[in-house]
Amino acid sequence: MTARGRLVTIEGIDGAGKTTLAGGLAAALRERGIDVLALREPGGVALAEQIRALVMDPAHAVAPRTEALLYAAARAELVAEQLEPAIAAGRFVLLDRFVDSSLAYQGAGRELGVQEIARLNEFATGGLRPDRTLLLVIDPAVGRARRGEQADRIELEADAFFARIDAAYRSLAVADPERVRVLNATLAPRELLAAAVVELADLLAR
Ligand SMILES: Nc1ncnc2c1ncn2[C@@H]1O[C@H](COP(=O)(O)OP(=O)(O)O)[C@@H](O)[C@H]1O
Ligand SMILES: [Mg+2]
User: Whose CA is nearest to atom 8 of ligand 1?
Assistant: First the structure.
């Protein structure tokens, strides 16, 4: 029987460097001969990519509950089509955002309540949990300065919104330090990558 794979997620506010780290980490793990499946949220499957386009479009009005449900729906499809089969096949899944993003953005940022959003996502994912989460922590103002000119619908939000998200992310790390490992996102990309590999060492050694 194939050993169960791994699910590692990367989290943090917009501009923290998640996508950059995900790319570097996927390459580093592949160099070690690990069969990596790298995906991003929302997205990763056709239906979820369409939901992504909808939810990020500044032209749409999206009520907070609608937003939470759209992200959860995209996630449910990703779990069914990609994550469950890949983990069952023994692959190492590297995912740019997952449930913690909704806890932080919709639960705290939109003030829908972290517990409410946790329940919604328990349903959406069937209870699938990451083996490890790398949380990139950065001052929200620095994150904002790093982002591109063209802000999507979420990125247009005010500083207070990102301050609530940052606080919620840090609370998640305090609540579950075994799973959620905090990384200093102001490190240079190469150093950040090395720090990330250290936090995954026990998952790589088998
Ligand atoms: N460790 C880092 N140090 C400095 N700048 C970074 C670092 N990681 C990423 N960046 C830059 O910051 C911007 C946002 O990075 P990105 O990986 O897209 O963040 P996220 O996916 O978290 O929004 C990009 O311009 C990227 O080149
Ligand atoms: Mg990104």
Answer: 17
